[in-house]
């Protein structure tokens, strides 16, 4: 085991530890200066894995949008308390899932609104009506992107949705 | 994006054991498929940071069984319900055992808002990859931890890989408390 100094014991102390490149040793490479790479055909194969799962990602995204909507409907009128905090965390996590999955299957606009919703819920306790209006606008925007299959962030309909969300933010934010 | 270079050897990753820490089953399956495509031999999965800790306690134990394969690289999500990536990374970098605290860690997250990237770096992540995931992105991070492992820095408020990736000449006023010759450099052979 490497004996590390306790940095708090000596102000300004810097200890630099040069580590033997154990990953290269494992690959049978004896000299650290030799740099290798992963074969391009292997990278292409991995990229195909992403392409092949796009349909499944879209279907999962749909499931998580449903969950976001259900949870949001269940929590929006609850008083502050444990139950509300728990559901709010679920909305946060599920919006995060929607963001990840929609990014994978090319639903960039949905990813954009899901990210906005997740971050808004993450920094607000949604105790004020105004906060709930903004969140509702984001949930609605996510649903519309899905039901109307609006994928691209520069789709003309995307501008309308963004304007709707912005209006809620301007009015209640 | 990695560019293929004729003169560089191709890595055969069959001897590698990579631990994926991810709570979404969909993402678990996808990352496993991608790592298999890269040729990684052993892949372990943890559903949460807490489960990853349990796995690492076994795989990185000092006297491991010949049937237990040590983890070489951790690929972790950041936002998870039971034990976040932040907690796991903190646990790894503050661990007493070399085979844990020097572990290469790649953070893979869609939660890049605010200071997450800086926080991951300041907690000692080797690499951060933002979702949506791409094969080139993941390959380049794995190759980076193999090709260019940065030395570890131990100071009062940080333990992890050197956060400076470039060696550039600095012509400004000297602000360092510690002179270069006072930096203690030790060599470490991971047990």
Structure description:
The complex is a heterodimer of chains A (173) and B (191). Chain A has 173 residues and is mainly alpha-helical. Chain A has a domain of 119 residues: Four Helix Bundle (Hemerythrin (Met), subunit A) (Up-down Bundle), CATH 1.20.120. In chain A, 66% of the residues lie in helices and 3% in strands. Chain A starts with 14 loop residues before the first strand and ends with a helix. In chain A, 36% of the residues are buried. The mean pLDDT of chain A is 89. Chain B is an alpha/beta fold. Chain B has one domain: Rossmann fold (3-Layer(aba) Sandwich), CATH 3.40.50.2300. Chain B is 30% helix and 19% strand. In chain B, strand 4, helix 5 and strand 5 form a beta-alpha-beta unit. In chain B, helix 2 packs parallel to helix 3. The longest helix of chain B has 14 residues. Strand 1 of chain A pairs parallel with strand 8 of chain B, so a sheet runs across the interface.
- Helix/strand/pairing category of chain B: alpha/beta
How far the N terminus sits from the C terminus of chain B, by CA atoms, comes to: 33 Å
Number of helices of chain B: 6
Series of secondary-structure elements of chain A, N-terminal to C-terminal:
EHHHHHHH
Main pleated-sheet profile of chain A: none
Biggest interface between protein chains, with counts per chain? A-B, 56 and 71 residues
Count of the domains of chain B = 1
User: What percentage of residues of chain B falls in helices of 4 or more residues?
Assistant: 25-40%
Q: How many strand elements of chain A?
A: 1
CATH architectural label of chain B: 3-Layer(aba) Sandwich
Shape of chain A: extended
Average residue pLDDT of chain A: 89
Keywords for this structure?
heterodimer; A: 173 residues; mainly alpha; Four Helix Bundle (Hemerythrin (Met), subunit A); B: 191 residues; alpha/beta; Rossmann fold; 5-stranded parallel β-sheet; 19% strand; globular
């Amino acid at each position: 085991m490497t004996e590390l100094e306790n940095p708090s014991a000596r102000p300004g102390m810097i200890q630099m530890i040069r580590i033997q490149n154990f990953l290269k040793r494992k690959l049978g490479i004896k000299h650290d200066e030799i740099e290798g790479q992963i074969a391009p055909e292997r990278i292409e194969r991995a990229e195909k894995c992403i392409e092949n799962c796009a349909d499944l990602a879209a279907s999962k995204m749909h499931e998580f949008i449903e969950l976001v909507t259900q949870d949001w409907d269940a929590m929006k009128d609850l008083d502050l308390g444990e139950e509300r905090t728990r559901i709010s965390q679920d909305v946060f996590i599920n919006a995060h899932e929607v963001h990840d999955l929609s990014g994978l299957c090319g639903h960039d606009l949905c990813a954009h609104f899901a990210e906005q919703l997740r971050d808004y819920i993450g920094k607000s306790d949604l105790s004020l009506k105004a906060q709930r209006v903004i969140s509702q606008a984001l949930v609605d925007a996510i649903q519309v992107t899905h039901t109307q299959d609006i994928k691209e962030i520069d789709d003309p309909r995307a501008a309308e949705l963004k304007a709707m969300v912005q209006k809620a933010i301007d009015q209640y934010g | 994006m990695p560019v293929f270079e004729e003169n560089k050897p191709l890595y055969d990753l069959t001897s590698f054991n990579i631990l994926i820490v991810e709570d979404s089953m969909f993402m678990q399956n996808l990352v496993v498929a991608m790592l298999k495509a890269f040729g990684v031999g052993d892949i372990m999965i943890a559903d949460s940071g807490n489960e990853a800790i349990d796995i690492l306690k076994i795989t990185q134990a000092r006297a491991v069984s010949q049937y237990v394969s040590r983890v070489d690289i951790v690929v972790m999500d950041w936002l998870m319900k039971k034990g976040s990536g932040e907690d796991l990374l903190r646990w790894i970098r503050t661990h007493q055992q070399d085979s844990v605290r020097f572990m290469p860690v790649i953070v893979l997250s869609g939660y890049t808002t605010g200071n997450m990237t800086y926080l991951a770096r300041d907690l000692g992540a080797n690499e951060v990859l933002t979702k949506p995931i791409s094969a080139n992105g993941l390959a380049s991070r794995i190759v980076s931890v193999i090709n260019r492992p940065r030395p570890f820095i131990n100071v009062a408020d940080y333990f992890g890989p050197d956060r400076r990736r470039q060696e550039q000449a600095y012509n400004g006023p000297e602000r360092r408390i510690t002179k270069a010759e006072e930096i203690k450099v030790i060599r470490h052979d991971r047990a």
